[in-house]
User: Fold this.
Amino acid sequence: MNSKPYIVGIAGGSASGKTSFINDLKNEFPLGKVTIVSQDNYYHPKEKQLIDENGKINFDLPESIDRASFHADVLKLMGNKSIQLKEYTFNVSPENAKSIMVKPASIIILEGLFVFHYEEIRKLIDLRVYIDVRDSIKLERRIKRDIKERGYPEDDVKYQWEHHVMPSYKRYLRPYRDDAHIIITNNHHYTKGLQVLCNHLRTKIG
Assistant:
């Protein structure tokens, strides 16, 4: 790959469907044409995370991410170099996390809550995509996910939503919505928006 890769930033609130959307997007393209870099793989260890006034860890702050390493790895991929990183999985410590190789590609997707907020990342992005979902739907999805996949009590999920998720969303993500090149609504499904984006990206494959 000799030409400059096309960088796509995809952001959306918690439980907006980013992961499903991006996986479906990648499956629309031949193997090796699209690579994904998730902000979640750059979380600082728990002991370095900030604590709220009630002693709860707040993972929904820009400071929760090792943004310097995130930025450095994106630059390596843009320079046609592969990167090695630990894949983030809930409740799995970094030393036990799976190591994954991320290879450069014609299209590089940067995904996460803060990819538009981090100025050094935003400057690298050619196309900004915002996944928009009603707050009530996101909360409903988050409750179902966190109870089923993480074993959280519903009260804990609602506490995080009220004290961490929504304040962070309103401050660090929602202000960038109207600056996005493409806004994809996912209150029910994203099929039409996915096809619009895929059609655009097919013109960028080298």
